[in-house]
Specification:
Helix content is 33%, strand content 22%. It is of the alpha/beta class. Strand 12 (228-232), helix 8 and strand 13 (263-267) form a beta-alpha-beta unit. It starts with 5 loop residues before the first helix and ends with a strand. The structure holds 5'-deoxyadenosine and iron/sulfur cluster.
């Protein structure tokens, strides 16, 4: 039984990060034979990719995937802690699992991911949801076989959550969702400690993967026919800083581009670490996609300071212009929080001002959600929720206007699209993304699946476009 501890999670050790290979003991390989599993994923791409590892590990244990949660023998929730509503969704689902377990007591149920790293969540599970069989965190996914082995032999919830970061585990098995595009972790954790954000506590200290391991993975994906890789990290621009070597994200990006894989993407960038050298590399290699997610969070210097973001409105706008100059066709998207503690109307107008200047291709917008243990959760916050909701509404109207305007520029143009799946609504349509990350629905036969084709855009909406093969 290893419980999460908030105080431990806040610490940053100088311990050297070990790199080791994934191993699974033979005694765990039969646990799942004849049984099925279902994993439900909440949250960001990092979690989506963790689920791809979890699924493959379960399959090494003999389990088979089942799309129907209600009929599965093992049900696992891979959770997100970023905002209160993510929490609520998960607790709602845990309630459903309770009923399932009452109907079929033989099923195994578990919770993992970012919420599992939270002390308050695990306390609540132990108090209210004792029927759950196991809980493990973000640092020990590779230990899932041993955790399940323990959980099955016990009649109370088995908790195994490390609050100190784990090793970097190479060669983890992976069952990828797509045959054409792949996530590649380049780093784990985050040391930025923005005052509103729980990630540095749930994902631990920053640990970069070795450059040679990343390149090896990209090369093998290319050999397997993958067209696109997305380099993943909470703060990819800080890649390598913890390794104390003389290369950084721009060197990594360049090496990945040189593998010749057709499309390279990366998320998420922090404006603070975005160097000129990186912008040069993005502009120089045609296979680095002209799409950048550049979280703004707020346009007010006062609020940015309270958020611990380490840039100002002016320096953000300078960076934005620099990127637009070097990569003229780049699409740029952002994240914005409204209603941070103490945000007043003037602060909010500063945010709107940045949106009006940047005219983002799209933006994810949120109302501030206090997260237990973060500094912002303790800040005085006397703005009524109705005011925050009104700000969000106003912001969304402006954001949507620019999103549509950005899409309208594509009308009648030809753009490259990686066609990656059959539309759910109409099986004569394929869907895919442009180099600039615009979703396009295309009338095309299935033989185009997995191909990057030129598409002529025939209609545009705020969130997607329609087109035909050019
Ligand atoms: N409240 C609201 N939004 C948040 N985000 C992160 N933490 C919080 C929080 N406590 C948003 C940020 C981040 C995105 C992934 O989620 O905008 O960029
Ligand atoms: Fe959610 Fe953040 Fe964890 Fe991703 S890293 S799952 S966004 S809390």
């Amino acid at each position: 039984m290893l419980m999460p501890h908030l105080d431990e999670a806040k610490k940053r050790t100088k311990n050297k990060v070990l790199v080791r290979k994934f191993e699974i003991d033979d005694k765990f390989k039969k646990i799942g034979v004849g049984k099925t599993y279902y994993v439900k994923t909440y949250g960001c791409q990092m979690n989506v990719h963790d689920t791809e590892n979890i699924k493959a590990i379960l399959e090494e244990m003999g389990f088979k995937e089942n799309d129907d949660m209600e009929k599965s023998d093992l049900i696992l929730l891979n959770t997100c802690a970023i905002r209160e509503n993510a929490h609520n969704k998960v607790f709602g689902m845990i309630g459903r699992l309770k009923h399932l377990k009452e109907d079929r007591p033989g099923i195994i149920t578990g919770v993992c991911g970012c919420m599992a790293q939270e002390e308050v969540v695990v306390d609540e599970i132990l108090n209210k949801f004792k029927f759950l069989d196991f809980v493990f965190g973000t640092h020990n996914i590779d230990e899932l076989p041993a955790i399940l082995y323990e959980a099955i032999s016990k009649n109370k919830t088995f908790i195994d959550v490390k609050s100190i970061e784990g090793d970097i585990v190479e060669d983890m098995p992976v069952k990828r969702d797509s045959k054409y595009k792949a996530f590649v972790n380049i780093m784990y954790g985050c040391d930025k400690f923005c005052t509103y954000c729980i990630v540095p506590y749930t994902r631990g200290k920053q640990r970069s993967r070795r450059i040679e391991d990343i390149i090896k993975e990209v090369e093998s994906l290319k050999k397997d026919g993958y067209k696109e890789v997305t380099l993943l990290g909470q703060n990819v621009n800080a890649y390598g800083k913890d390794l104390n070597l003389d290369y950084d994200m721009s060197d990594l990006l360049e090496l990945v581009a040189k593998t010749g894989i057709e499309r390279v993407r990366f998320v998420t960038s922090h404006p603070w670490d975005f160097t000129d050298k990186m912008i040069d590399v993005i502009g120089k290699y045609p296979n680095i996609m002209p799409y950048i997610h550049l979280p703004l969070q707020s346009g007010s210097d006062r609020i940015l300071k309270l958020m611990g973001r380490r840039y100002t409105k002016e320096s953000y706008l300078e960076l934005f212009d620099k990127i637009k100059k070097a990569v003229p066709n780049a699409s740029i998207t952002t994240d914005i929080i409204v209603g941070f503690p103490g945000e007043n109307d003037d602060d909010f107008l500063e945010t709107l001002d940045v949106v009006n200047k940047c005219k983002y291709d799209s933006a994810f917008t949120f109302i501030f959600s206090p997260r237990e243990g973060t500094p912002a959760a303790k800040m005085k916050d006397d703005t009524p929720l109705s005011v925050k909701e009104e700000r969000l509404h106003r912001l969304n109207e402006v954001v949507n206007k620019y999103a549509l305007e950005a899409n309208q520029k594509y009308l009648d143009k030809e753009v490259p699209v990686l066609l990656e799946n059959v539309s759910e609504k109409d099986d004569s349509m394929l869907a895919g993304y442009t180099d600039t990350m615009k979703l396009v629905n295309v009338k095309a036969s299935k033989e185009y699946l997995g191909k990057i084709v030129n598409v002529k855009i025939t209609d545009v909406k705020t969130w997607s476009m329609d087109g035909e093969i050019a």
